[in-house]
């Protein structure tokens, strides 16, 4: 009897922890804390220990899976987050607020503007500077995890349409950035691995279609899809989005929850409480030296990145959404206001992870690399603070009326 009570108590504790971690505010706080700890650690006298942990390699030697912990976090753990975000996006596209084509087109056009305008501004400022040939792509991405965390902490009371707009915008935005990475920086693309990934995705879709629920089939297919995408040369997080978009979101008669909802509930605590914070911990480890900090605003490449993320993202996202509505290609949700979109557009300047990844790929010179990384951090921090302030203001205004 005592053992049974202990088990029940442990099960209740686990359920409470899961519900606790599902709240985005808590998940966002954990993630931001992990990023701050990493930034302090890597700039302290103990920086070598941080680098040793980040660069420690684990995994099998075969299939190029003997990777550093930092790479596992960026390619593996972040794929879990993209899967959870993709499940929510698929649900909204099929049975939620984005099921109307014109509603779905609003964040798509905003994302396109948020790619084209920052890239154009950055290219203009960088033109002729050493390393500008690929660096213009650095400010095109919005960091979904960080942007959603800021939104959750600063303005949780805003309508879910605001969060949904940011989520949809950031997913499209990051997919565009991943495509740019594949085009600009992939030296070899494995067609065989891509065909393998396509076959596994097809198998996953068939299992969903025929309502198969056996976990021992889904787990190897999911892991195999991730490995195939990783081996293909395409960024491995694409596997998470692709699998999510193939997951069924409509419950059958007599079914309490559709697979997408069930998976989202089970994986969200893991994503919020472990995957994203660990990823943030390894991504935020940027050394900030006085010389590099002073050179950010004199180096045209670093300056182009800062302007692209701050001014370019705002103009592109807001302008893309406004143009789509003006041309009647998209409609504005009844709960959304243009000032909400403006606040989200500022928050789109949180480039962080993917921007840092493109920076790593674009430069070999350590000094230039450090300056541009600091530029990404500065722009992301400023966008977070201004965006959070605007969103908090919007939440306050909305609480007193539209």
Would you kindly provide a written description of the structure presented here, covering whatever features stand out?
There is one protein chain. This protein has a single domain (2-186, 234-399), classed as Na+/H+ antiporter like fold, CATH 1.20.1530. The chain is mainly α. Helices cover 75% and strands 1% of the residues. α1 (2-22) packs across α12 (259-283) and α4 (69-95) runs antiparallel to α12. The chain starts with a helix and ends with a helix.
**Residue fraction in strands:** under 5%
Number of helices: 17
Largest sheet strand order:
1-2
Q: Structurally, how many domains make up the residues?
A: 1
* DSSP E strands, number: 2
Q: In the CATH hierarchy, what is the superfamily?
A: Na+/H+ antiporter like domain
What's the pLDDT, averaged over the residues? 86
Shape: globular
Order of helices and strands: HHHEEHHHHHHHHHHHHHH
Residues in helix, %: over 70%
The name of the CATH architecture is: Up-down Bundle
> Termini distance?
56 Å
Q: In the CATH scheme, what's the topology name?
A: Na+/H+ antiporter like fold
- Tell me about the biggest sheet? 2 strands, antiparallel
């Amino acid at each position: 009897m005592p053992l049974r009570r202990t088990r029940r108590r442990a099960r209740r504790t686990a359920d409470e922890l899961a519900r606790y971690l599902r709240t985005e505010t808590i998940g966002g706080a954990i993630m931001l804390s992990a990023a701050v700890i990493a930034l302090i650690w890597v700039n302290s006298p103990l920086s070598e220990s941080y680098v040793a942990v980040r660069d420690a390699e684990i995994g099998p030697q075969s299939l190029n899976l003997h990777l550093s912990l930092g790479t596992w976090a960026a390619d593996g753990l972040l794929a879990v987050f993209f899967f959870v975000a993709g499940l929510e996006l698929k649900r909204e596209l099929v049975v939620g607020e984005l099921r109307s084509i014109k509603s779905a087109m609003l964040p798509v056009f905003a994302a396109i503007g948020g790619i084209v305008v920052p890239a154009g501004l950055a290219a203009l400022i960088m033109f002729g500077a050493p390393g500008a040939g690929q660096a213009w792509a650095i400010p095109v991405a919005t960091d979904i995890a960080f942007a959603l965390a800021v939104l959750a902490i600063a303005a949780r009371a805003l309508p879910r349409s605001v969060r949904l707009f940011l989520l949809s915008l950031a997913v499209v935005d990051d997919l565009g950035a991943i495509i740019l990475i594949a085009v600009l920086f992939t030296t070899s693309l494995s067609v065989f691995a891509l065909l393998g990934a396509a076959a596994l995705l097809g198998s996953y879709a068939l299992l969903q279609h025929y309502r198969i629920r056996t976990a021992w089939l889904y787990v190897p297919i999911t892991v195999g899809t991730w490995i195939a995408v990783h081996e293909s040369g395409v960024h491995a997080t694409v596997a998470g989005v692709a699998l999510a978009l193939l997951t069924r979101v409509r419950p059958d008669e007599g079914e309490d929850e559709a697979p997408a909802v069930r998976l989202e509930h089970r994986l969200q605590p893991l994503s919020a409480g472990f995957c994203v914070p660990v990823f943030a911990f390894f991504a935020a480890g940027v050394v900030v030296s006085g010389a590099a900090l002073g050179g950010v605003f004199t180096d045209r490449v670093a300056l182009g990145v800062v302007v692209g993320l701050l001014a370019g993202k705002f103009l592109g996202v807001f302008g893309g959404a406004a143009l789509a509505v003006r041309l009647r290609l998209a409609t504005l949700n009844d709960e959304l206001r243009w000032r909400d979109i403006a606040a989200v557009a500022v928050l789109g300047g949180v480039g962080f992870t993917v921007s840092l990844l493109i920076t790593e790929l674009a430069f070999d010179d350590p000094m230039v690399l450090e300056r541009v990384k600091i530029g990404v951090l500065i722009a992301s921090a400023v966008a977070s603070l201004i965006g959070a302030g605007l969103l908090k203001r919007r939440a306050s205004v909305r609480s007193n009326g539209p």
